Amino acid sequence: MAAMKNNLLVTILLSLAICCLVLTVGLTVEPTLTEIGLDGEVSVEASELEAVSLDFGRLSRREEKTTLALVRPASLDDVVKVVKAANKWPSFAVSARGHGHSISGQADTRMKGVVIEMGKGSGEIKVWEKEMYVDVWGGELWIDVLKATMEYGLAPMSWTDYLYLSVGGTLSNAGISGQTFNYGPQISNVFELDVVTGKGEVMTCSEERNSDLFHAVLGGLGQFGIITRARIALQPAPQRVRWIRVLYSNFSTFSKDQEFLISLHGRQASQRFDYVEGFVIVDEGLINNWRSSFFSPSNPVKISSLNADGGVLYCLEITKNYHQGNADSVDEEIEALLKKLDFIPTSVFTTDVPYVDFLNRVHKAELKLRSKGLWDVSHPWLNLFVPKSRIEDFDKGVFKGILGNKTSGPILIYPMNKNK
Ligand SMILES: Cc1cc2nc3c(=O)[nH]c(=O)nc-3n(C[C@H](O)[C@H](O)[C@H](O)COP(=O)(O)OP(=O)(O)OC[C@H]3O[C@@H](n4cnc5c(N)ncnc54)[C@H](O)[C@@H]3O)c2cc1C
Known about the structure:
GO terms for molecular function: cytokinin dehydrogenase activity; FAD binding. It is an enzyme of class 1 (oxidoreductase). Its cofactor is FAD. By secondary structure, the protein is α+β, with helices and mostly antiparallel strands. The chain folds into three domains: 2-117, Uridine Diphospho-n-acetylenolpyruvylglucosamine Reductase, domain 2, CATH 3.30.43.10; 125-236, Uridine Diphospho-n-acetylenolpyruvylglucosamine Reductase, domain 3 (2-Layer Sandwich), CATH 3.30.465; 240-403, Vanillyl-alcohol Oxidase, Chain A, domain 3 (3-Layer(aba) Sandwich). The chain is built from 13 helices and 15 strands. It has helices at residues 2-26, 30-35, 46-53, 76-87, 142-150, 167-171, 180-183, 211-217, 251-262, 327-338, 355-359, 361-371, 391-403, and strands at 41-43, 67-72, 93-97, 113-117, 125-128, 133-137, 154-155, 190-196, 202-206, 226-233, 235-236, 240-248, 275-281, 313-322, 349-354. It is globular, with a radius of gyration of 25 Å. Flavin-adenine dinucleotide (FAD) binds next to β3, α6 and β10.
């Protein structure tokens, strides 16, 4: 009897397994998606599915065809309909894709499913001039947010170095750059979000309302819902930027100066820089690298003449924003701040650009690299937070040790305040 029961159990399990296999292999979402009446587009074109399985990193590509369809929503309603359909039986996975500029396939579905390419969606960027915030669709690119807000003389405060990234994409990470020491990452500059949850409900969340969801979605790597609208804080936009680079041959002096500069956060604008970043130069060619195309070529520097410690130099990058009207006082403010730093005196490189050109600086390099076919290549990239207590060891072990003169890729150092 017992043996028979066991046999029966095995048979039932076996037939269940076969049944599941058939369902999984045969799962096609196309009829479901055409039946739910989307206003946007649905594509099952092999070339389009292949394209969304790739991203900027070019490090991962789905071997088995996990992406069954691609949806380009025309509205919030479309996103809701797809997520609700994904919850019905047979269910399928859903993944939001912004501009596909992460590096390891984060915006692709890991299981068989549908990629929602957020794109322009409903397309509206609504600037609330008096309230000093802007409402944007989750798939909107930061460059377009900047252009729209600049029409009102306003701009968000915290940025990434590159602006062809989507609002939903960077808010799902953190969004850090040289302004973070002062304003915090981009996720600290959001008032409110509309999120489509895993069940297909639309929830508005903020610090005060559904705050668990708000905090889970910000920096949540797309795992807690799809951001369809973000309300982002604005401030009056400056007109121009004085952009300065100075060099160091000694790492402790460099990091001490970086730490000093970020300790000035919250001071009056005249008493601090507006942006503090830096990079490591382990290769002489790098001083004229893709990030420096705004600096005049008459600024080349002979690294060998600078007495680099262990063959490595450190470049501090700082900016001061200003309005035409106070251009005179800017020079004095910069001079006073530079006097407090301990860089190599002959290594000051300065340029002056419109605010939008500064924020959009990497795009210029992108166009150059694209023209040489060097943009659509693999981009291995690693971000690490290193505590102040170990940064000197990191310099010795990694910059001077592992990397020393053997890499030509950019190595950026962003000083950060933990409390931001
Ligand atoms: C050249 C370059 C420079 C960069 N510079 C910086 C920098 O200075 N600072 C910085 O912080 N980062 C930087 N990044 C990294 C970048 O911020 C992240 O990779 C970001 O996720 C890319 O945005 P995306 O729109 O391309 O997102 P995608 O790659 O499309 O998606 C990234 C993640 O977000 C999720 N997601 C996308 N949209 C939504 C949404 N609407 N709702 C919920 N989840 C969503 C996806 O599912 C995925 O998990 C840079 C990247 C590149 C390529």
